[in-house]
Amino acid sequence: MHSIMRNKPLTMKRREFVRQCLGLSGGLLLASSVPALLNGGIAYADSGHAPIRKPIPATGDRLSSIGMGTWRTFNVGSSPALLAQRVEILRHFLQSGGECIDSSPMYGSSREVIGHCLNVLNKEGANLTDKVFPADKIWTYEEAATRRQYDESADLWGLTSFELMQVHNLLAWEAHLPVLMEMKAKGQLRYVGITTSHGRRHSDLEQIMRKYPLDFVQLTYNARDRAVEDRLLPLARDRGIAVIVNRPFDGGQLIDDLQRQQIALPDWAGSVQCTNWPQLLLKFITSHPAVTCAIPATSRLEHMRENMGALTGSLPDEPLRRELLNYLSRQPGLRGMRPA
Ligand SMILES: NC(=O)c1ccc[n+]([C@@H]2O[C@H](COP(=O)([O-])OP(=O)(O)OC[C@H]3O[C@@H](n4cnc5c(N)ncnc54)[C@H](OP(=O)(O)O)[C@@H]3O)[C@@H](O)[C@H]2O)c1
User: Which of these ranges, 47-51, 88-92, 212-216, 255-259, has the smallest mean pLDDT?
Assistant: First the structure.
């Protein structure tokens, strides 16, 4: 794990060790992830099974292009049966090469449940948790509570520090951002970010992205909701800000609509190794050049299996991305779609 888990002996991460021995930066070490054109798609991996990992501009380190959200899906309290299911969901996520886990104090018991699952997997000793990229949020009106909430979250996850701490929904951002930046400067935190999922906050977010040296921004982007394409995604690229995409399935509605209307996958989906809609919807997102990772949430192991299928193989190139949008916009029963 990038950050230190309290219940695990402190050892140098293997990746960090190799990097130091070779005197390489993160980006160079993962040269197999450099894109090359292949069959109309962008190939990110030498073998079909290596996870697609995209750069974090601030450091050049790479992050798996499929992460995991936890809103609702990990808010399951203390039921042993539900906890055991979450352990299996997280196990599959990590075994497939997933890294970023996103949570928030807003998500009920999710932080505690993540902590429980990591602890169970850690005790098994298979080093599964070594690559977790823990990302949480500050979500409080209380301006003086930044540090306190950070510590509380770290405690619930079983960590001493986070890789990424984000201000949730721009709440009291004027107070929280400077504290997080200071913590980063002192080495208590690796990356600082800010999140929203509301179009009405986009102009505020744009101003913050222009003014502050953010490492990450988290926003909503999917084949139906493309409001960020015009300004925020290009700005993130210009400013070197990594992008995490929330609500990649439009909260699940987009998959439901596609399935209810029995809309067939386009016949070229196999050329980018997609066998179902969730994979194609996720690859549409992660193939955007500004996007670092998408964080779909699921409460079901079979859905996690489907979603992690989007982490390998090739990604649609620009013509295929446009073709997907045009195909979806031609489906009469699918609301809210617009052509490329
Ligand atoms: N402002 C913010 O910071 C903010 C706002 C919104 C979201 N987020 C983050 O982003 C994450 C993702 O957003 P979200 O949870 O709102 O929406 P989402 O990931 O777009 O959709 C989640 C829904 O999709 C369903 N689903 C997942 N995989 C599926 C599959 N393979 N087949 C069919 N259905 C599938 C899930 O149902 P099942 O459980 O049945 O699989 C769930 O109901 C959140 O969990 C949270 O961590 C952050």
Answer: 47-51
> Which residue from 153, 74, 162 is spatially nearest to 113, judged by alpha carbons?
74
pTM (two decimals): 0.91
Instruction: Give yes or no for residue 340 having a pLDDT over 80.
Output: yes
Q: What is the pLDDT of residues 231-256, one digit of tens each?
A: 999 999 999 999 999 999 999 999 99
Distance from residue 28's CA to the centre of ligand 1 (Å): 33
Closest ligand 1 atom to residue 72 Cα is 45
Nearest CA to ligand 1 atom 1: 196
φ/ψ of residue 62, rounded to 5: -115, 155
Q: Which atom of ligand 1 is nearest to the CA of 297?
A: 19
Pocket of ligand 1 (CB under 6 A): 69-71, 73, 102, 168-169, 195-197, 218, 246-252, 255, 278, 295-300, 303, 306-307
Superfamily name with CATH number, domain 38-329: NADP-dependent oxidoreductase domain (3.20.20.100)
